[in-house]
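re: the backbone from monday

yeah here it is again, tokenized this time
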């Protein structure tokens, strides 16, 4: 795995991530998380994104709306209070860059209007790392899904986990990641993901997930 130094290549997977400016909270409540999840689905379309044209719809209805040509394939995601992680594959020329720009702009406009603020919400540019092999993709997706562990065991990356079963339960039920879709749960969030990833990556027991996540951390310099 290498930090990106060249343009994204079609057919390759990348870990794309970003955090809010000054570490401020970028998701204040469930409504904010749900809007970002909606945008993960809606921004993945070559057509212009106009969220206001959708009107008032239920969350599940938004994730079932028809779209045009995809910009990226989404393999996994996790939203945390002040940052987010995405696993993306470039499927059209310039797709990842266009998708990340649409996603960030649309959410920032929403967030600023709702919370009465101005200016950028996320750092620019977003960070990315190329995933060069399927085994690293598996470690990466484990890492992304294990991110909520820090909310319950802040030192999980470097220390012994006191209660893996307790931690695993919280990771498995975290509502703002794609782990449910990967474990076969009936969730509308599956619509955000590309079906190909399920044939590449299998969800492992919590101990193996944590091990894979740590392997990814050891080979990266994610802040």
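seq for it, each position gets an aa:
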């Amino acid at each position: 795995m290498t930090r990106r130094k060249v343009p994204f290549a079609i057919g390759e997977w990348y870990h794309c991530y970003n955090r809010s400016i000054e570490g401020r909270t970028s998701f204040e409540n469930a409504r904010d998380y749900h809007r970002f999840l909606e945008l993960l689905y809606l921004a993945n379309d070559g057509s212009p994104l106009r969220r206001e044209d959708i009107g008032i719809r239920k969350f599940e209805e938004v994730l079932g709306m028809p779209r045009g040509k995809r910009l990226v394939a989404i393999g996994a995601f996790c939203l945390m209070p002040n940052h987010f992680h995405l696993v993306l594959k470039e499927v059209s020329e310039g797709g990842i860059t266009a998708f990340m720009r649409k996603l960030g702009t649309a959410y920032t406009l929403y967030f600023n209007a709702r919370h009465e603020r101005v200016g950028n919400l996320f750092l620019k540019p977003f960070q990315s790392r190329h995933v060069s092999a399927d085994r690293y993709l598996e470690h990466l997706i484990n890492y992304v899904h294990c991110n909520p562990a820090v909310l319950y065991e802040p030192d999980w990356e470097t220390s012994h986990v006191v209660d893996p079963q307790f931690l695993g339960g919280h990771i498995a039920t975290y509502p703002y990641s794609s782990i449910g879709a990967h474990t076969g749960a009936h969730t509308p969030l599956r619509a955000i993901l590309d079906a190909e990833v399920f044939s590449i990556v299998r969800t492992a027991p919590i101990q193996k997930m944590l091990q894979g996540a740590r392997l990814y951390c050891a080979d990266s310099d994610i802040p």
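Residues 2-218 form a domain with the Alpha-Beta Plaits fold (CATH 3.30.70.1290). The two ends are 16 Å apart (CA to CA).
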